[in-house]
Amino acid sequence: IPHGLHGQVPDRPLHVIDLGCGTGGSTRVLACFCPAGSRIIGYELTEHLAAIARQGTYRHHSGAGTQVAFVVQG
């Protein structure tokens, strides 16, 4: 994800959707490398995995928190 984002996104906050976010691993990477102030929504099919993801901490590489929400939907 970091390589794919480098130089490819504008330097402003983004609204990001993480489809199939699972336990939040990819969401954590997105939070770290998307521009500061970005908002991320993680979509997952399984409530159990989304519940684990909700317990995570999601921060930008600067240390600032990132707004993250998780939705379970088929």
Give an account of the 3D structure.
The structure is a single chain. Helices cover 28% and strands 23% of the residues. A 3-stranded parallel β-sheet has the order 1-2-3, covered by helices on one side. It has 74 residues and is of the alpha/beta class. The N and C termini lie far apart (24 Å). The chain has helices at residues 2-5, 25-33, 47-54; strands spanning 15-19, 39-44, 67-72.
Could you give a quick summary of the protein structure above?
The chain contains 3 helices and 3 strands.
Task: Quote the distance from N terminus to C terminus.
Answer: 24 Å
Estimate the global geometry from the Cα principal axes. Answer: globular
Overall pLDDT confidence: 92
Helical content class: 25-40%
| H/E element order | HEHEHE
Give, in spatial order, the strands making up the sheet with the most strands. Answer: 1-2-3
User: How can the largest sheet be summarized?
Assistant: 3 strands, parallel
Structural class: alpha/beta
* Total count of helical runs of at least 4 residues: 3
- The low-pLDDT segments are none
Q: Strand fraction band? A: 15-25%
Radius of gyration: 12 Å
Quantity of strands, as a count = 3
